[in-house]
Amino acid sequence: MKLGEVIKTQAEKYDSFYLYNQVGIIKSTNILKENFPQVEFLYSIKSNSNNHVVNTIFNQNFGADAASLGEVLLSHELGLGSDKIYYSAPGKTIADIKGAIEKSIIIADSIDEIKRIDTVSKELGKVTKIGVRINPNFSFTENSGGSSKFGIDEELIYELLAENQCKNIEINGIHIHLKSQELNANILEQYYNKIFTLATNLKEKCNCKLDYINMGSGIGIEYSINDNPLDIKRLGQFVANKLEELKKTNPNTKILIEVGRYAIGKNGLYVTKVVDRKTSYGTTFIILKNTLNGFIRPSIANLIGKYSTDKKPIASEPLFTSLDAFQFLTLKESGEKEKVTLVGNLCTATDVIAEDIIMPKLCYGDIVFMTNAGSYGAVLTPMQFSTQEKPVELFVNTSGEVVE
Ligand SMILES: *Cc1c(COP(=O)(O)O)cnc(C)c1O
After folding, report:
1. Which residue's CA lies nearest to atom 4 of ligand 1?
2. How do residues 324-363 score in pLDDT, each as one tens digit?
3. How sure is the predictor about 262, in pLDDT bands with cuts at 50, 70 and 90?
4. DSSP string, 189-255
5. Which of 18, 178, 318, 376 has its CA 20 to 30 A from that of 294?
6. Ligand 1 centroid distance, CA of 51 (Å)
7. Ligand 1 center to 5 CA (angstroms)
């Protein structure tokens, strides 16, 4: 069945829904595997925790980037081994540590947290291997860093690794993640380069074991129709060359890269329906089911566009990417067009997703769908506001069947 027909059929049952596409997820993850054959990929579950989606990506041999104990447990329940679940998040409680310590590789986010993991390990009578998240003294584009709520400052890491005071802890891996959604391969190459240099310095100065280097995310996707795709082939080649160098001195060090949006972002749509239309003092409003409270990101983009004097306000991932990150499409073929403002059905005036755009003439029951809704869509959206019926999440599998 063609995508348009799938949308139409499901829209007969549901007024608003997400539609994820398994074929697309497999394609996107294959692109990564083919271009980075020596890299181990982790899926950042927080981008979309739908079980069909997560399962599909795990079946592509991805590990888990878990951002909470809940995501550790979900990965575990879906059958991932504890050596493939990396738990990295700020502010883990003692209960989180206790719940995750046997089921994942914990990446400590602070010096105090290392002490807490040490205490829990001692109680269990074991030595726990952990990684540490580093706040490096660089950014994607600069050779200096700054304060961050994430990780342990680079200047403290050398001492920590050289003389770890915690008897029930062994530090054997590092994690760095600074930024999402980069489309410039050159900038990502510089970033990876700095990580490789940091890792080499750590090895030399601390004589420590580095079983893995987790280089975080950064791999972006095209949101706007004006975005140029990232040159993934070139980036893959760069990492392969770097790895060859690294392997000379660190033959057993694994390289990990985490992705959320690259796996799923473009493989999900958000579909909604027109529930009313009206013209008020010259503006035609198309009222849609569940916009801000179904897929919040277009509403945020519209709001930022209103308040910012910048033509291109800076991104704040994952809430805001750019003003033109989402396309609003219909299934109407050619015909009459009109200038409309797309709003939602909530009792708040901020529930607006697009103002004065040209759309085919829309009436009650017509379908409107939005692109790039696979990642940070359902998971980010406050659906409880005003006790509306929530959109469902549907998944089209490789046989073309739609499952809930
Ligand atoms: C959210 C997150 C990611 C995933 O980012 P994407 O841009 O969706 O690929 C990766 N690593 C960490 C640490 C994150 O917090």
Report:
1. 260
2. 999 999 998 778 999 999 999 999 999 999 999 999 999 9
3. very high
4. HHHHHHHHHHHHHHHHHH----SEEE----B----STTPPPP-HHHHHHHHHHHHHHHHHH-TT-EE
5. 178
6. 18
7. 33
